[in-house]
Design goal:
Layout lengths: L3 E9 L2 H12 L2 E2 L12 E5 L5 E6 L17 E7 L2 H10 L3 E4 L7 E5 L5 E6 L5
Parallel strand pairs: 1-4, 5-8
Antiparallel strand pairs: 1-5, 2-3, 3-4, 6-7, 7-8
């Protein structure tokens, strides 16, 4: 195991609206305080009663998916907590991932694409046992 899934992040035009939709669908608490991230205009969260966390990321000029149209595919990414960002990066690259955004060293997270091109982020944080 390289890391632990932190949350699933969905791109959208309005994270607050979408988080409230999913709260009605799944139950849970919108924008509960959490040390892992800050909520704000561009970021909203839903902590479900079963422990799943969904995050909603505002994207300028968002074009909603139109299933099954390949020109408008589904839009989400995984955030994965890892205890050692450098070691995790080396391993996912070895597995066929591509580094898309290394960011600033102090940022503590990096963006990759999986072998099929889907983005995911590694976040340098301790994995819970």
């Amino acid at each position: 195991m390289i890391g632990e899934l932190q949350c699933v992040v969905l791109d959208c035009a309005d994270g607050e609206v979408l988080s409230r939709f999913y709260a009605e669908l799944l139950g849970g608490e919108v924008n509960r305080p959490d040390r892992r991230w800050a909520v704000g205009d561009g970021w909203s969260t839903l902590h479900t009663e079963r422990g799943l966390v969904l995050a909603f990321q505002r994207v300028a000029d968002h074009r909603p998916p139109r299933w099954p149209d390949p020109e408008r595919p589904a839009q989400f990414h995984l955030d994965v907590d890892v205890p050692d960002l450098e070691a995790a990066q080396a391993r996912v690259l070895e597995l066929g991932a591509e580094l898309l955004d290394a960011g600033e060293p102090a940022r503590g997270w990096r963006v990759f694409a999986d072998p099929a091109g889907h983005p995911f982020c590694l976040l340098g944080r301790p994995v819970t046992p």
